[in-house]
Amino acid sequence: MRVHALRVVTVLAILVAWELTVRAGLADPLFVPEPTAVVRVLGAVTRAALGSFAETLGKVAVAYGLSVVLGVGLGVILGSARAMRDVLNPFVVLLYGLPKILVLPWIILLMGTGAAPAVLYGTLHGFFPVLLLVMGSVRDIDPTLVVVARAFGATAGQIYLRVILPAIVPAVLGGMRLGIVFALLGVLIVEMFSGIRGIGFLLGAYANSFQAAELFAATLLVSSVSMGIVLVLDSMTGRLSRWR
Question: What pLDDT, on a 0 to 100 scale, did the predictor assign at position 241?
């Protein structure tokens, strides 16, 4: 209770300091609105953003699903096949380090301005964290566990199901937590800079029209949903850890 109380007090102190700073004229309300101004427009922004947010979440769901399926599948394959990993690992690291914004114009040029480029770009953002975490986790499994399983007559499928999958549960969950954030980021970037319908387009419209309070309110809405999803994934960690 003491920790929670300190957290609440800290947040309230920041909000009060923010409000007083703007009211004292130390910050331009055209760019940094008061928290009370954000609260006043929050309801209207939420109603206006529901449709756009639903479109964005649909794209994020598809991109996130592809990121997890492809990242876990390829991570398990590359992590367990040493020869393939040694050959492909430099290319994976190189592609992960490549700024994804460089390929965005090519994606839009090839796929147009519909939902497809947003889904593809979101998948690219969410795929690599999942892939690298899972691949590293499979690579670092104690080989003694696999040797013992084979000595007791376990088949390849049983080794994956009873040894490898339980061992990589923390890495998969960690990748899933990172993947949802990066997939959402990728979709929002495409919506902001390509004029594709969604909450990202709405954020860009608020910024371009200098509606600072509405922009902060929409940002708060997106951040709250994102943090809620991450908290749900965190709650899954305890349950799957017991299965592990």
Answer: 61
Shared-domain flag, residues 112 and 228: yes
Mean pLDDT of 192-203: 83
Average of per-residue pLDDT values in the chain: 85
The Cα–Cα gap between 116 and 166 comes to 34
96 and 216 in a single domain? The answer is: yes
Q: Tell me if 196 sits within 8 A of 187, measured CB to CB.
A: no
Is there a single domain that holds both residue 24 and residue 68? no
Closest by CA position to 14, among listed 35, 39, 33, 29: 35
How far apart, in Å, are the Cα atoms of 24 and each of 18, 21, 29, 219?
A: 10, 5, 11, 24
Q: Are residue 42 and residue 148 in the same domain, yes or no?
A: yes
**CA–CA distance, 29 with 22 (Å, rounded to integer):** 6
- Give the model's pLDDT for residue 71: 92
The encoded tokens of residue 115 equal 């939902």
Q: DSSP per residue over 225-241, as a string?
A: HHHHHHHHHHHHHHHHH
- Separation between Cα atoms, residue 147 and residue 240, nearest integer Å: 25
Token couple for 122: 């979101």
| pLDDT tens string 127-158 | 999 998 998 888 888 788 888 888 888 887 78
The pLDDT assigned to 61 comes to 93
Residues 11 and 73 in one domain: no
Cα atoms in the Cβ-side hemisphere of radius 13 Å centred on 119: 13
pLDDT (0 to 100) of residue 147:
82
